[in-house]
Amino acid sequence: MPVPRNRLVIPALCVAALVALGCVAAPQTPSGQPQRPARTPITAASDRPDIDGTDTVEEFRADVEAARALAEEYWTKEFDSSGLTFQPVAELIPYAEEGEVACGGQALGLNNAAYCSAGDFIAYDIDWAFTAFRRVGDAFIFYLLGHEYAHAIQRRLRIQQQFTIEQELQADCMAGAYIGDLEKAGRLRLDDGDLEELAAGLDAVGDEPGQPWFAEGAHGTPKQRTRAFSNGYNRSLEPCNLS
Q: Between vectors from CA 162 to CA 160 and to CA 168, what angle results, nearest 5°?
């Protein structure tokens, strides 16, 4: 597989856009069949006048496929090194309307991305993801896929934490390891300042002040999320406590 052309870039002026970009994992539903729509075209999103930047629909699609391929490559290698057989996520599903995709009978909303264990797929609001891609940079796509793919790995390893926040911070750590290890292996290239901008983005998507850490759906404070990602990026999977 050739080294992707992608760079992980988050312009400083666009960090504020990450405030509304939370990676939200779907409930780990033990049963039920997901609704699976036809592939959704994204030409409409590219025509919206409020989208800034020069990145194209073709680049977006290429980055999504590169992030998925590299996630499969990364986790195949990690599983092989542990004597395990890796099974890639069954499908990556873009959607454009609320309720167009469901996980175990629960409809997925807009401005969202989720891993669904019921159907073993990752689904994402394509207009939201494409807008973030153009305003924030391609780092968003690699982080998004890295985080949601981490939830799929948790399922494969049968990791089920007691609290949502534990599950989410572990996924942030795993996403950091995915990006950091790929960079060290020469599979991704980061420009100067990209890590600082990515850390600022993680800081922006932390839970609001006052959010109880034990609440269902809690992802962690900005400091906790940044630290979890940085631990994975700097030290690979060791601090993610997968065993």
A: 70
- In the DSSP assignment, the letter for residue 35 is B
Integer-rounded Cα Rg, in Å, for the chain is: 17
Cα torsion angle, 223, 229, 235, 241, sign: positive
Residue 99 gets the label, from left (phi > 0), alpha (psi -120 to 50) or beta, of left
The residue assigned the tokens 């800081």 is 203
Q: Which residue has the tokens 């030409």?
A: 43
pLDDT in tens, 208-229: 777 767 767 778 888 888 899 9
Pairing of β 113-116 and β 7-8: unpaired
pTM, two decimal places: 0.77
Residues 204 and 148: their CA atoms lie apart, in Å, by: 18
Place of tokens 């049963």: 31
Residue 102 to residue 231: CA distance in whole angstroms: 33
